[in-house]
Design brief:
This protein is an alpha+beta fold. It has 14 helices and 24 strands. Helix content is 30%, strand content 28%. The protein starts with a strand and ends with a strand. The chain binds ligand EPZ.
Length: 441
């Protein structure tokens, strides 16, 4: 949402972007999945650790990546686009300076600049991050890692300031499985003196992708993808060329969209193993999923069965697929129960689905979904990234028109989602609406 001053300065115009969906079309044909958002937003800041340029391929064209690149440019990096999804970043001109406040607070992953600037300059000043409102999102495990490695941390005026004379390897046990803290710990330890052992580490595919990228630069990391990661500090990291893994959550989102529209489509550029937690649940409710080397075919049919699911750290059912699954289950047979095992408040979108006729009751971290015969199109608002995806799925599977506002949430993490859906037969358009608001005083 942008505020623009018209030439007539006593008026302010709000520019809203909306998705308009006329639902009911089956999704067919094929779609190519982009690079993984949650890998890209860790790998791009990691380039700061290299003493030569790096070239990254399969970079998704999403707003969070755009913010990451703007931060790097502000710090002094030189960035060249080889093509739409391939970028070369030269980190050598980067200076030790604070990360701009508004850029840092516009996303969650800005906190990876803490570890990379600390590792390079033994000092980092990064404003507290923003990101999806999923309830309480503390950073205690991140700060615990930095302190364990020898840094002093303070938070003043909304800015996290960490500094160290030097960083030394240590043993870190995570009190909670945390993707972000595991990534920040790897980034801070990769050039520390000696061995760092991370225990109770997160095991998501993007953790493994970052470790593979760092090792391609000369790091010495073992065990990524398990709950014990060992990092032997090295003196330098050289440049590298690296291709980011396909986005497990984007692929899962399209799987559910095809199932919700009773479609039949091929989802390409995926790693089927990364999708196993999603595939097993979809098969259990009656969706046909056929796996190939780097693609999967999804066939939707009839009414789906009810299911009980709890979101868990990988390899459990991913929390980032929870809203999308809920949208699908609103039309299943019987009563489904979804327990959110990671976030305090990730059902805020339930009210928006109720506007479309869904029968969902939420009690804290548990949602009970009574399947209904049909939903109806309605004006709704995306409350966060994956909630927005869930509303798109609900709109696609519903006769009638659904208008989705606040789609900037969706565009933070999905690369050309409306274009990809249109190519599969969906009737979805993006509309920019400028609304004159009250006379500026
Ligand atoms: C990452 O967030 C993802 N974001 C989230 O995806 C995802 O939902 C989450 O991991 C879980 O998979 C990015 O990768 C940019 P956590 P992150 O640290 O790292 C608690 C999306 O839709 N915790 O794994 O912030 C925390 O409150 C986004 O793409 C602490 O208590 O999540 C939560 O309950 C939304 N202290 C749990 O751990 C800490 O210091 C897991 O959080 C850190 C986390």
């Amino acid at each position: 949402m942008d505020r623009l001053l018209t030439e007539n300065t006593d008026q302010e115009v709000i520019v809203l972007e909306k998705f308009i969906i006329n639902g009911g079309n089956r999704l067919t044909g094929e779609v190519e999945i982009s690079g993984a958002k949650n890998a890209a937003v860790a790998i791009i800041p990691a380039v700061i650790l290299a003493d030569e340029p790096c070239t990254l391929e399969n970079v998704p064209s999403i707003n969070d990546v755009a913010i990451d690149l703007r931060i790097l440019r502000e710090l002094g990096a030189e960035i060249k686009f080889v093509n739409k999804s391939t970028i070369t970043i030269d980190p050598r001109p980067i200076r030790d300076m604070p990360v701009p406040y508004e850029l840092a607070r516009s996303m969650r992953a800005s906190y990876y600049f803490l570890a990379t600037l600390l590792s390079r300059f033994k000092h980092a000043q990064v404003p507290m991050p923003g990101g999806c409102d999923l309830g309480d999102r503390p950073m205690d495990q991140h700060l615990k890692c930095f302190r364990s490695l020898g840094a002093k941390c303070s938070i003043e005026h909304g800015i996290v300031d960490i500094r160290a004379d030097f960083l030394f390897g240590t043993q870190i046990y995570f009190d909670k499985v945390s993707v972000g803290a595991t990534i920040n710990a790897m980034l801070a330890a990769v050039k520390a003196e000696g061995l760092t052992i991370l225990e109770n580490a997160a095991k998501e595919p993007h953790i493994v992708d970052l470790a593979n990228f760092l090792n391609s630069m000369g790091a010495d990391i073992m065990g990524a993808g398990t709950d014990v990661i060992k990092i032997k500090g090295v003196n330098r990291l050289h440049g590298a060329e690296y291709s980011i893994i396909p986005d497990q959550i984007e692929a899962g989102t399209f799987m559910i969209a095809v199932a919700a529209t009773k479609g039949d489509a091929l989802i390409k550029n995926v790693i089927p193993k990364h999708l196993e937690p999603i595939t097993s649940k979809l098969r259990k409710i009656g969706v046909v999923v056929m796996e190939y080397d780097d693609s999967i075919r999804v066939i939707g049919q009839g009414k789906y069965d009810r299911i009980t699911v709890k979101t868990m750290p990988h390899p459990g059912f991913p929390t980032d697929m929870q809203p999308q699954l809920t949208a699908l289950l609103t039309l299943a047979k019987g009563t489904s129960i979804i327990t959110e095992g990671i976030w305090d408040n990730r059902f805020r979108y339930a009210d928006e689905l109720r506007r479309m006729g869904a029968d969902i009751s939420v009690d804290g971290k548990v949602a009970v979904i009574e399947g209904v015969d049909h939903l109806t199109g309605a004006p709704v608002k995306a409350t966060d990234l994956r909630a927005g995806a869930a509303l798109i799925i609900a709109g696609l599977s519903t006769e009638g028109t659904t208008e989705i506002e606040d789609i900037y949430h969706i565009e933070r993490g999905y690369d050309n989602m409306d274009g990809k859906l249109r190519a599969m037969g969906a009737d979805i358009v993006k509309r920019t609406v400028s609304e004159n608001i009250r006379q500026a005083i």
